Model the fold of this input.
Amino acid sequence: MGRWGWRVYAAVSRIASASKSINNPNLSRNPRIRSPVISRPRNHFSSFRHFSALPASPPYVEEFDASNHDFDANKILEELFEDDEAGKISVRAFFLCTSVDLKSMQAENSKYVIPPTSRSTNSIVLRFCGPPWETQGAAGNDMRCYRYMVVYQYGSAILFNVEDHEVDFYLQTVRRHASGLLTEMRKDDYAIKEKPLLVEDMQGGLNHIVLKNLDMDSIRIIGSVLGQSIALDYFVSQVDGMVEEFAQINRAMQKTGTFTMDRKKLFQLVGKANSNLADVILKVGIFDRSEIAWRDAKYAQILDYLREEYEVAQRFGNLDFKLKFVEHNIHFLQEVLQNRKSDLLEWCIIILLAIENIISICEIVRESIGS
Done:
């Protein structure tokens, strides 16, 4: 019998013994085991009571409390599961690159790939019985015996039930098929707790989610939200950098009344802003519909809860607002550069006209002198 079995057995034993003592009226309130009387030399000091700082409680207090409170087996078992941190499955989200070749990665790890349950092609799920150097075969039907890795085409990798010392090995598997590796990898931590006695299908918690049953669709749903969240952090940081750059330009314009920026640099900022917005909408798929959540309401509940927990819609709204600020500044600077170019062309035309007039005057003067 495993650790969980002993804990459940102890809880059930407590419930059974308490209910037996309440329902059986023939039991004595203060049962004592009587031993045969043995004559001993009388000690006068033995008749004194021991002193105690705490008042003695009647022997029937515990029975009185038990008789006036209902024992709820589910409540006791839930407390046992709640207090046990070992029941949590760690979830680690990483954003380490801007693109992953899923086809080559799937070909290299074909024996670990789990077939998809939807038509989505932007992710693959790998299941390991443990690190490859420890894998000896199947680990049974318990989901907690496996390691899972969900990899997304836009660069996120979500690891389930992976220890700290194993993280680098699994990330190296992704890096071999990645492009646009980041100098500073972004990461986030989460946890899943499986509770079969839960009345509802899921329940939220502090930096974790409680599920009645953990299955592959749950892993895909949780991985999709965490992958989008960690990727959104990266794109928000990129847009924040552009906002800060334009803020510095505006502060310089406030002091000097002009600005110095190369037209090529401005076009690069335009391309960066547009590509970030396109990546968030198309690659990350913030607004894409989940077929798993569409088929089953319990997965839709998990999806809605996690999106609300990570404030995905609000953060995308903030990102869109910042991009509009960048776009406004880009249009303004483009107009200034265009006006500068127009002024330059006007001066060129003026200079050419002046040169033409000078040449005409010189010819007239030469002809008059010659005649």
